[in-house]
Amino acid sequence: MFGFRNGWRGVLDSTVERLDRRSTQGILLRGGTVLGTSRTNPISEPDGVARITETLEVHELDGLIVIGGEGTLSASRVLSEEHGVPIIGVPKTIDNDLGGTDFTIGFSTAVDVATDAVDRLHSTAESHNRIMVLELMGRHVGWIATYAGLAGGADAILVPERSFDINKVCRHLKRRHGMGRSFSIVVVAEGAVPAEGTMALPDYETDDFGRPVLGGIANIIGPEIERQTGFETRVTVLGHVQRGGRPNATDRVLGSSLGKAAMDHAAEGNWGIMVGQDGAHVTTASLGEATRELKTVPSEMFETARVFFG
């Protein structure tokens, strides 16, 4: 078995290293990706498909086990369905936005980090009678913001699935203060979208996959909240802290379970699938099913959170 350095870039350039018991010893405790990663889209690379096929032939490999999120596995789907490249996908993204699985590797750890941040902001918000705005990752879906906001007792959660009216948010915060609550926590996903005509956002640049490079929405929302409410407001952008550190127990078990399942299916020649979690069981879905549409936060979760927005 070989590992390719820096994601699709390593496959295109045939940059490999042997993976055996010695080279993989102790990686269970390590966060991130030990092989490195890149933002390379193999479909848009010159002769990308031919180079991938040649790499498999040169190293006499039966296929690829591709570990990644929506962008990585969408490219895998195209390579598998349209070009016959043998691929098995493993869902790894803190966004938890892939279909065919309840949870993706990395999501649980990111939620732990984000919830800890909400908890810590509570103490400074309460002691200084402030509104604290916490920006979390979530380009098109609000899984991290919803889970961390609910677990941390946030007073408002803004996510891409539901456009927000900043005027209504401010009225809600003023009502809380009018009822004697001297502080509030607002959790916002980086991809949260304001209702049409309520406030403007900057034009974001796009990456190699055509996706907007987001970040900084809290720096727009925070001053507006302070202007409308008159309450001192502070902004925290957690950023890549959510992606680092040691994985928690849930992600370690999930990674081990899905990794073993991927190996079993590779040994049996079951290509063109993604392994995933369904309840307590490991299951499979086609790469098409996994990437056909983003898995969004169900509406009942927002209704659950709304109960606690006192």
Task: Please give a quick description of this structure.
This protein is of the alpha/beta class and 310 residues long. It is built from 11 helices and 10 strands.
Topology summary:
Blueprint: E1 2-4, H1 8-13, E2 16-18, H2 21-24, H3 48-58, E3 64-68, H4 70-83, E4 87-91, H5 107-128, E5 131-136, H6 143-152, E6 156-158, H7 166-178, E7 184-189, H8 218-229, E8 233-237, H9 249-268, E9 273-278, E10 281-286, H10 287-291, H11 299-307
Parallel strand pairs: 3-4, 4-9, 5-7, 5-8, 6-7
Antiparallel strand pairs: 1-2, 9-10
Helix pairs in contact: 5-6, 7-8
Keywords: Cytoplasm, Glycolysis, Kinase, Magnesium, Metal-binding, Transferase
Pfam family, one: PFK
Protein name: 6-phosphofructokinase
Put simply, the count of helices is 11
Whole-Å distance between the termini? 54 Å
Quickly name the level 1 CATH class of the largest domain. Alpha Beta
C-alpha Rg (nearest Å): 21 Å
Backbone structural class: alpha/beta
Largest sheet: 4 strands, mixed
Question: What portion of the residues fall into strands of 2 or more residues?
Answer: 15-25%
Low-confidence parts lasting 5 or more residues at pLDDT below 50?
Answer: none
DSSP summary, beta strand count: 10
Shape: elongated
CATH architecture of the largest domain: 3-Layer(aba) Sandwich
Do you know the CATH topology of the largest domain?
Rossmann fold
What does this protein structure show overall?
It is an enzyme of class 2 (transferase). Its EC number is 2.7.1.11. One of its GO terms (biological process) is canonical glycolysis. Keywords: Cytoplasm, Glycolysis, Kinase, Magnesium, Metal-binding, Transferase. The chain has 310 residues and is α/β, with parallel strands linked by helices. The protein has 2 domains: 2-105 and 247-291, Rossmann fold (3-Layer(aba) Sandwich); 108-244, Phosphofructokinase domain (Rossmann fold), CATH 3.40.50. 41% of the residues lie in helices and 15% in strands. It has helices at residues 8-13, 21-24, 48-58, 70-83, 107-128, 143-152, 166-178, 218-229, 249-268, 287-291, 299-307, and strands spanning 2-4, 16-18, 64-68, 87-91, 131-136, 156-158, 184-189, 233-237, 273-278, 281-286. A 4-stranded mixed sheet has the order 3-4-9-10, sandwiched between helices. Helix 5 (107-128) crosses helix 6. The protein is elongated.
